[in-house]
């Protein structure tokens, strides 16, 4: 038999049965007019009986109590805001109707903003998939979708959001390497921004679903190696850049040498044997791939001297 005590009771938002505050405002005005009329025109005359005096005092007290009763039930609902209403601890619905509203005074109203919130997380130091320490931060756009879950299913939904953002950022950051150090085409934190942002948004939506929170946008705003390895990783990136540049230079030089040999042979300018071709290729490669300008040497003899 399953243990039902470990199953969380998930709340669901329902509409509240609130009333228009403008109608109740007219009722309050009518009660006020009656009270003023009772005071101004219903004062007991001198020598009135005790019953008439008590009736006047009772009417006056009743008018005041009725006015206070009506006034306590008023509340305002701003655009993109909801009022969570409870009765003696029992959830009675959420009022999302804008304007002046009214409920019975013994009902508790707690206002929850359904507007979009923007949170920029602090820099978090984590280890990527390869164990390299990195610093990472993100920006998250979120809003309350279910006010009942936000109020009743978590203790403090704003603090819950901040904690889950950091936890989700750590989880996603640890799934991938910072950069691609191999020839394999894999997802990296630096080179696959769209994929990482979508994964972070999905991770946060899964974590914040318990609180009735929806994440509309999530993206990395800071990504760097930790200071203790930043210098070594910079040298590695510089070495990669040098190697890539050298490869491009060599490939270009090989193409130029092939074109030169083909042109010389096609036009019959000079007839070179294999040994002389190898020497020419060596000289051209040195000239084209060298870091410094080549110093020309004038040969005053024959081609083979």
TrEMBL record:
<feature type="transmembrane region" description="Helical">
    <location>
        <begin position="55"/>
        <end position="77"/>
    </location>
</feature>
<keyword id="KW-0472">Membrane</keyword>
<dbReference type="GO" id="GO:0006508">
    <property type="term" value="P:proteolysis"/>
</dbReference>
<keyword id="KW-0378">Hydrolase</keyword>
<feature type="transmembrane region" description="Helical">
    <location>
        <begin position="20"/>
        <end position="43"/>
    </location>
</feature>
<keyword id="KW-1133">Transmembrane helix</keyword>
<keyword id="KW-0645">Protease</keyword>
<dbReference type="GO" id="GO:0008233">
    <property type="term" value="F:peptidase activity"/>
</dbReference>
<dbReference type="GO" id="GO:0016020">
    <property type="term" value="C:membrane"/>
</dbReference>
<keyword id="KW-0812">Transmembrane</keyword>
<protein>
    <submittedName>
        <fullName>Membrane protease family protein</fullName>
    </submittedName>
</protein>
<dbReference type="InterPro" id="IPR001107">
    <property type="entry name" value="Band_7"/>
</dbReference>
<dbReference type="Pfam" id="PF01145">
    <property type="entry name" value="Band_7"/>
</dbReference>
<dbReference type="InterPro" id="IPR036013">
    <property type="entry name" value="Band_7/SPFH_dom_sf"/>
</dbReference>
<feature type="domain" description="Band 7">
    <location>
        <begin position="72"/>
        <end position="237"/>
    </location>
</feature>
């Amino acid at each position: 038999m399953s243990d039902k005590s470990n199953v969380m009771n998930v709340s669901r938002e329902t509409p509240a049965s609130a009333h228009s505050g403008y109608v109740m405002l007219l009722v309050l005005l009518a009660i006020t007019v009656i009270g003023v009329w009772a005071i101004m025109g219903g004062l007991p005359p001198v020598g009135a009986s005790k019953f008439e005096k008590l009736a006047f005092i009772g009417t006056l007290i009743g008018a005041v109590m009725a006015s206070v009763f009506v006034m306590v039930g008023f509340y305002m609902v701003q655009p993109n805001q909801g009022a969570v209403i409870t009765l003696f601890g029992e959830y009675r619905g959420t009022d999302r109707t804008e304007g002046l509203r009214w409920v019975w005074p013994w009902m508790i109203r707690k206002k929850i903003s359904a507007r979009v919130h923007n949170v920029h997380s602090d820099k978090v130091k984590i280890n990527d998939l390869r164990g390299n320490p990195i610093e990472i931060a993100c920006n998250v756009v979120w809003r309350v979708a279910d006010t009942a879950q936000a109020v009743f299913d978590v203790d403090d939904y704003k603090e819950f959001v901040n904690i889950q953002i950091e936890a989700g950022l750590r989880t996603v950051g640890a799934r991938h390497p910072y950069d691609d150090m191999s020839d394999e085409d894999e997802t990296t934190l630096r080179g696959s921004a769209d994929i990482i942002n979508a994964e972070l948004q999905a991770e946060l939506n899964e974590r914040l679903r318990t609180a009735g929170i929806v994440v509309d946008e999530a993206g990395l705003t800071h990504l760097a190696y930790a200071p203790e390895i930043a210098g070594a990783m910079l040298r590695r990136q510089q070495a990669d850049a040098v190697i890539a540049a050298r490869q491009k230079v060599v490939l270009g030089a090989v193409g130029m040498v092939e074109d030169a040999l083909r042109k010389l042979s096609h036009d019959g300018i000079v007839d070179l044997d294999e040994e002389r071709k190898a020497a020419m290729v060596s000289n051209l490669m040195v000239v084209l791939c060298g870091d410094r300008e080549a110093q020309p040497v004038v040969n005053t003899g024959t081609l083979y001297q």
